């Protein structure tokens, strides 16, 4: 019987590495293929690595030969995502891939976020391509916040435009576990999963940092314009990028990143890493 091979795009990225790490706990490493721009950077993953660039259709088709199941981790190049994803889906079909799991965005079909448009296009194309699919509509990563924890501790404040909006974020590791369950399990054909963790506000986040660090950290809510300026000055973001992310943050107050769906917990077996767990890990990493 021919061995099933599972391909993971963007395997050297932050989510991709977590997926590979968790996949190796479920299947033999010989069944896993890391699809990456620079295979030499994937040597530490302990699996086969193939050159794979979203912008090169001819390379994509060759790299996907022999792969049965594919995890398409969305490109990080905003504005180029759909044509890149289309290249991958077309290449997968030509190479004989049987199913694709795609990391989309929470409630893509109705999301007010500017990020949703390219995900929506990709979902529509994937549904129409004739391959089996699973849409993993991931919410925010808690690490989107904890990545800047060092700066928060220095300034004594968490800044944002999210108001009292709730964010159903989860850790990358939990989203990776969910992807692995879909790639290695049954019953996920042509399913759409809304995935998110236990909801918290930015004030809750600031309070958790205060509790664990022993410092008084406050959440300071700003207008989109004010927050964009903070991102420019403190995070050194270009003005258009800062404005974009501040606008995304403002939509949190309208429920854009909140879900009551418990599918993520169900997929990974019930226990999600908490906000407290993520803050603790981030604090340990900067000590």
Describe this structure as you would to a colleague.
It comes from Elizabethkingia argenteiflava. Residues 10-184 form the NAD(P)-binding domain. This is NAD(P)H-binding protein. Pfam families: NAD_binding_10. By secondary structure, the chain is an alpha/beta fold. It folds into two domains: 6-138, NAD(P)-binding Rossmann-like Domain (Rossmann fold); 142-170 and 196-260 and 271-287, UDP-galactose 4-epimerase, domain 1 (Alpha-Beta Complex). It has helices at 14-23, 57-63, 81-95, 116-128, 143-146, 149-155, 172-184, 202-213, 224-234, 239-252, 263-268, 275-286; strands at residues 6-9, 32-36, 48-51, 69-72, 99-105, 132-138, 157-160, 191-195, 218-221. Strands 3-2-1-4-5-6-8 form a seven-stranded parallel sheet, sandwiched between helices. A two-stranded parallel sheet has the order 7-9. Helix 4 (116-128) links the parallel strand 5 and strand 6. The radius of gyration is 19 Å and the shape is globular. The termini are far apart. The relative contact order is 0.13.
Please specify the SSE layout and strand pairing.
Layout: E1 6-9, H1 14-23, E2 32-36, E3 48-51, H2 57-63, E4 69-72, H3 81-95, E5 99-105, H4 116-128, E6 132-138, H5 143-146, H6 149-155, E7 157-160, H7 172-184, E8 191-195, H8 202-213, E9 218-221, H9 224-234, H10 239-252, H11 263-268, H12 275-286
Parallel strand pairs: 1-2, 1-4, 2-3, 4-5, 5-6, 6-8, 7-9
């Amino acid at each position: 019987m021919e061995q099933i091979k599972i391909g993971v795009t963007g395997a050297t990225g932050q989510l991709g590495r977590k997926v590979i790490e968790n996949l190796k706990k479920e299947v033999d490493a010989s069944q896993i293929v890391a699809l990456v721009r620079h295979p030499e950077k994937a040597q530490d993953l302990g699996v086969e690595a193939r050159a794979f660039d979203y912008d090169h259709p001819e390379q994509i088709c060759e790299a996907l030969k022999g792969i049965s199941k594919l995890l398409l981790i969305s490109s990080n190049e905003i504005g180029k995502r759909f044509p890149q994803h289309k290249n991958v889906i077309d290449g997968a079909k030509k190479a004989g891939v049987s199913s694709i799991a795609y990391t989309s965005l929470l409630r893509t079909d109705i999301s007010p976020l500017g990020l949703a448009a390219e995900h929506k296009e990709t979902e529509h194309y994937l549904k129409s391509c004739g391959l089996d699919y699973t849409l993993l509509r991931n919410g925010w990563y808690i690490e989107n916040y904890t990545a800047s924890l060092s700066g928060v501790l220095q300034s004594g404040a968490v800044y944002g435009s999210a108001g009292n909006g709730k964010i159903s974020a989860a850790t990358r590791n939990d989203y990776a576990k969910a992807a692995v369950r879909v790639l290695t399990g049954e019953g996920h054909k042509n399913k759409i999963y809304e995935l998110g963790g236990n909801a918290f506000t930015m004030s809750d986040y600031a309070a958790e940092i205060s509790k664990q660090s022993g410092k008084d950290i406050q959440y300071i809510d700003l207008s989109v314009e004010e927050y964009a300026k903070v991102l420019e000055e403190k995070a050194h973001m270009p003005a258009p990028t800062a404005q974009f992310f501040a606008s995304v943050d403002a939509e949190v107050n309208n429920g854009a990143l909140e879900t009551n769906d418990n599918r993520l917990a169900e997929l990974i077996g019930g226990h999600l890493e908490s906000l407290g767990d993520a803050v603790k890990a981030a604090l340990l990493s900067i000590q």
